[in-house]
Amino acid sequence: MSEEQVVLEVKHLKKYFPIKGGILKRTQGHVKAVDDISFDVRENETFSLVGESGCGKSTTGRAILRLHEPTDGDVLFNGENLIDVSKSSFRHLRKDMQLIFQDPYSSLNPRMTVKKLLMEPLLTHKLATPKEAEEKTVEMVEKVGLSTEHLDRYPHEFSGGQRQRISIARALILRPKLVILDEAVSALDVSIQSQILNLLKQLQEEFQLTYIFISHDLNVVKHLSDRVGVMYLGQMMELAETEALYDNPLHPYTKALLSAIPSINPKEKENKERIILQGDVPDPSDPPSGCPFRLRCPMAHDRCAEEIPRYIEAERDHWVACHLYDE
Amino acid sequence: MKDFTQRLIEDKVGLIGFIGIFIVVLLAIFAPLIAPYEPDEMFTNHVMEGPSSQFLFGTDEFGRDIFSRIVYGAQVSLQVGLIAVSIGAIGGLIFGLISGYFQGKLDQVIMRIMDVFFAFPDILLALTIVAVLGPSLTNTMIAIGIVFMPVFTRLVRSAVMTVKENEYITNAQAIGVRPSMIIIKHIIPNIMAPFIVQITLALSGAILTEAALSFLGLGVQPPDPSWGMMLNDARAYMEFGPWTILFPAAAIVFTIFCFNLLGDSLRDLLDPKLKQ
Lengths: 327, 276
Prior knowledge:
Chain A: It comes from Tenuibacillus multivorans. The complex is a heterodimer of chains A (327) and B (276). By secondary structure, chain A is of the alpha/beta class. Chain A is built from eleven helices and twelve strands. By secondary structure, chain B is mainly alpha-helical. In chain B, helix 4 runs antiparallel to helix 9 and helix 10 packs antiparallel against helix 11. Chains A and B meet through helix 2, helix 3 and helix 5 of A and helix 8 and helix 9 of B.
């Protein structure tokens, strides 16, 4: 697996949001939304980032695309460091990496028809003349399961699932290489979710796409991904191939997360030990010393408070940041 | 556009407003043909006469025909209304967009300058500007435009800041749309509703401000007629001849009313969500 070509390499990415206060609006501290995470994404795979609300998974996606300017770190896309590129020339690179948003109700301009929404990316990057762009929109709406009669309608005339199809069409009409799906199905109800997920899978094969799938839904992630990274409080806790992670989770946090997946099999339910975490996620502006998870970790020991655990490859292709595996 | 006119015709209220304004515009353009007399022609035998078949709306204290003066006054009021509001609205739109979209230091500078303008009462500010530029119709329009600019700037700025939070703006950024195109294609169409309503309100305000300035001798210079000036001239005589104040006032009310009706329906017509 590791011989596969790496498309995106994220190295020590950090994104701190300053907290400003007082009369002079001085910076009083930082929310460490993303704190030193590294991972790579391979060609044509689906790489998932999971974690609870506020763990920094969406910020990671947006920092890669520089929608939030990263505080520190490097992002290499096909070997080119995106962080070094000037803002104005980065605009031209955007056609290769697209973002699909969670909320299909607010991510489409209510004053533009579907046709205009789909033509805009092509015309922006001068990839087609207006006439060619129109032809491409016809092709694209059909690919995402809408019909040409929808082209002259406005977003409010569609349901949530249909709107998400429009968003997908708008992102994919540029034929990007990398697509970041930021909770792309979380706002949809379950039956629609599976339709959209199947559509995404099908389009991935057709267009040879690489996905970064950001989600909190562990079932969806298991169904869709090749590899999964688990984030907690801005840091990567564990990263492995999907099967390895679900069958053999190493980090106590991952174990707790997986034990929380509801099961419809009553027998399985009896055997399963439910790990219930105590307390809440710490304030990201004032994280605990050492391991960010130690306050809620059932396995925490003295060393966890003293040292930040190293992010190591505990097994082949299975990375974890926990002192239990770093003797 | 075809669709738009179709919908305007179906919208009765908007249509009434539109027809009303159309009438006022016709009056202004064809004033020499419509008015029976010159606006400054004095009939010394007919001073302060009530409405009659000879003088439709009566005569004023100099024996001038009020109907003719109202017809000619439409030219001034419309000009002042439209040009002054355009100055204020376009200026406000530009400053508001810059302020709201880019924020930061530039926003602070623009908004503090607007605050200074806000701190003065409208009339006092307009008066000062006219006093500096010299009294004339053009300068009156510029002054009123400047007086109205802070209101538009604030309105546009806050609308931009609300719209900017929507994900479709981030979406456009992610696609790589240039900031200038984001403003033109994504932000401006979405702030139009409050903007258009403010324009219709400002139109009436401009007509009234012009009236006040003319009254103070800094707007339209006598004997040229303006509705506001007629209104103010008539204040002293309204007990003896209520028609002297009634008809100019009615002209102002009618025009403003029509602008407001049209503005309301324009706002709805421009919103695709309200399309049937």
